[in-house]
Specification:
Strand order of the largest sheet: 2-3-1-4-5-7-6
CATH architecture of the largest domain: 2-Layer Sandwich
Radius of gyration: 20 Å
CATH topology of the largest domain: Alpha-Beta Plaits
Strand content: 25-35%
């Protein structure tokens, strides 16, 4: 007889801007994170019958028996974290992003990937869920759901409808986190360049281009350039440039892509004003494919 597959609510969470926090104060960040987990997060997971499946330096994967348990745990944690962060400086706050999806009982299956992609869409201090979760939770909890449509989720072939969660009453989950203070000179974050190929060499090449751009821009004392370790935390995530600007405290975001056609590579990049989303228009460069060494790129100046 074929065993019955149970449905499980899968919660993925991570700390927004973790690399930046570690870079600024590693010991203090780790100490505060441990305190939040022991005093709030782990007890809430246990209270709502959750099971921690996996932890990383800045995040965790948790399984719940029901969507209701997962939603209650997530909303209570985020509301409590807002209160715990109230007295902390904006640039030192530990804020979690949470994604929740309902999948079958295979905790290492497709549902985990979807939950992780939903987490990447959440604002710091926020929660994003799939339509399955919204359908189960609507009307049963004092939560509101904002329809975000069907954004593209990396490596997820089928469309997934996404909802943002907010409390109806009491302390509100932040819709837009406070923006970090901007430096007193032009500031930019260079995101990892996307590559349209399954070839691992192309991924290495795309990463190298972004790193070279960061290095080149860092030579200008009139620019404030975010370090690679901070900007590359967005690698593989579906991100919004406004969110990047808020989390990293920059005015501009440079994003780009790499496409290969035969023995030629086409690199495209555009500079985006984080607050408004206005772009400078794409710049492009076509060059011969690299062999073992990196290609030095020179995109037209803006």
């Amino acid at each position: 007889m074929t065993p019955t597959r149970r449905l499980a609510a899968i919660l993925a969470a991570d700390v927004a801007g973790y690399s930046r926090l570690i870079g600024a104060d590693e010991e203090g960040t780790l100490s505060r994170l441990r305190a939040h987990r022991s005093a709030l997060i782990d007890p809430k997971i246990a209270e709502h019958r959750g099971r921690i499946v996996k932890t990383t330096g800045d995040g965790m994967l948790v399984e719940f028996a029901s969507v209701i348990d997962a939603l209650r745990c997530a909303s209570e944690v985020q509301t409590a974290m807002t209160e715990r962060n109230a007295a902390a400086p904006v640039d030192m706050r530990i804020e979690f992003r949470i994604g929740i999806h309902q999948g079958d009982g295979d905790i290492f299956g497709d549902g985990v990937n979807i939950a992780a992609r939903l987490e990447g869409l959440a604002e710091p201090g926020g929660i994003c869920v799939s339509a399955r979760v919204q359908e189960d939770g609507a009307g049963k909890l004092d939560l509101a759901f904002e329809d975000l449509g069907e954004p593209e989720l990396k490596n997820i072939a089928r469309p997934i409808r996404v909802f943002r969660v907010a409390n109806r009453g009491g302390a509100q989950l932040p819709e837009h986190p406070a923006m970090l203070p901007l430096p007193d000179k032009p500031s930019v974050a260079v995101l990892p360049f996307a590559h349209m190929s399954a070839d691992p060499e192309q991924e290495f090449f795309a990463n190298g281009i972004a790193e070279d751009v960061i290095t080149a821009l860092s030579r200008y004392p009139s620019l404030f350039v975010i370090a690679r370790n901070s900007s590359f935390t967005y690698k593989g995530r579906a991100v919004d440039v406004k969110q990047v600007g808020r989390e990293l405290g920059v005015r501009y975001v440079l994003e780009g892509s790499l496409r290969k056609a035969g023995n030629r590579n086409r690199v495209t990049a555009q500079l985006v004003e984080a607050e408004t989303g206005k772009t400078s228009g794409p710049s492009a460069l076509t060059a011969s494919s690299p062999t073992s060494s990196r290609c030095k790129t020179r995109l037209p100046r803006r």
